[in-house]
Fold these 2 entries.
Entry 1:
Amino acid sequence: MKLKLDHVVKTFKDKHAVDGVTTELTNGVYGFLGANGSGKTTLMRMLAAVSRPTSGTITLNGEEIGKMGDRYRDLLGYLPQHIGYYKHFTVEKFLYYIASLKGMEKKAAAGKITELIEMVNLTEKRKTKMGKLSGGMKQRVGIAQALLNDPKILIVDEPTAGLDPKERIRFRNLLAAIAKDRIVLLSTHIVSDIEYIAKEILIMRDGRLIEKDTPQNLVHHIERKVWSVNAEEAEVPGYQASYKVGNISRQMDGIQLRIISEEKPAANAVNVPVNLEDLYLYYFDEEVGA
């Protein structure tokens, strides 16, 4: 399968929320990385056929998704950033309700629901009301409902916001496990969500797609721009004012700063291995500071 975006624009009044995005997506996990307001959610909504582009086209195997209608929605699973749950429904009842909305026959739905409840590790909670679940458990129900129709395109928007580290790892591993024969699009501003599972990372800023590459290649782009500097306490404010400081670590013999800079920031600065957090800071230092 090939999902293609060609000069996709979405305008709200005089603001370009998405501004001329062109790219191709095939099977595997793609991480859409960007700060809040970068256009990720707007793009996800268009890919999920919830919203239509102001201009440009989105096609699946050469056919515009807006013209495919139900044929496209039958291939789609979608977990939006905010999903409405009926708090008095049990986990099982909620999934049956979603299955009915997707047009699934009850017998087929029963088997799929049992399979998915086991997959997301909620077997013991299947009779528990949604209102009594933790945030992480609700997100697991969310991914289960998105997978009910065995979608070939799975779109998840900021799925781990508010989850504790253990739940985030569980969710990430689940996405990696199901991505073999489908397109999985994961929108996030949390670097660790995509660092190890993304086939490619798409970096968005101000509605534009500014980079698209493998995590390894993106990190390689800034390989000589990340430095470790030993500094005195009194020097730290000056470094923070002049450079992008990713980390401040107090050591026995002083303070160690991790700095992203095009030029060597100090005589004692040495290059250090790069990670995706460095990459995020390289592109979004203003948002981090805010």
Entry 2:
Amino acid sequence: MTRTVLESKTKTVTIGFDEPFCVIGERINPSGRSKLNAELEQGDFSTVEKDALEQVACGAMVLDVNSGAVFKNKMAEDPRYADNNFVEPALMKELVQRVQAITDVPLCIDSSVTGAIEAALEVVEGRPLVNSTTGEEEKLEAILPLCAKHNLPVVAISNDETGISEDPDVRFEVARKIVQRAADHGVPAHDIVVDPLVMPVGAMATAGRQVFTLVRRLRDELGVNTTCGASNISFGLPNRHGVNAAFLPMAIGAGMTSAIMNPVRAVEMEAVSAANMLMDHDPNGAKWIGLSRVLDAVKDGASFAEAAKAAQAAGGGRGGRRGGRRRAG
């Protein structure tokens, strides 16, 4: 049975066909967040730390850490800040250190800049998920040797030099190519987590059916775990969280094993928790019952994040770090 093992200093999370759906928190990402961009440019990590703690309290099992900030004011002063290869490595290192100082979950190191991933690996503790490689030759030759050297799992995105195909068969073949090339570099299939690329259903009516079929093929034919940016399915639509909440259980039923998503949205976490129980990945419904108590508090006026943090505190949960030291590589 395919299992992709991720570790922090104190905690292990397994992504697998017979495991609970892995929620990877998406919010530590400055893309499209002008306020967070501005804070990071000023060296202010307060929102990052708040988002990290809230996501873990709400049920994130892994935290995605994305360093793709744009420092517009610094660009005007120093042209080096227009180059992501200059900006991202130092920022990624700081983000990783800040997040793992206050949380105990594994990390997903998210950057298109190889230097930023290398910088993260200098300070990360445990066994993170590298996000990501594509089927492009340049990316494969940059990322796969790095993952092999440090014995790390990697997200494989199903596009290549030709771009993102609307044909699901083409995206499957790109995934197959990445799995084969990874094996050549010594990275086994169980350490490949394929992102089959979720298209917006508002732009492509068959997008949902496409991804469900792709996930089944990736599981049955390649034996790999899968992930996606879950909110892509609802891009451009009203009531996006309702669409996401319907999509996630259907993807889980098709065999998807993780998603990069917003765990602070109660309706989406409720859908994931119910799906876990229905798939027999929640023994005795314990997680469902715990979440139901949090949702009862939400009905009484608390925000989901507030209620989740209160439940975590009442149950003795801690966001702080404890235990021995272990680093990738």
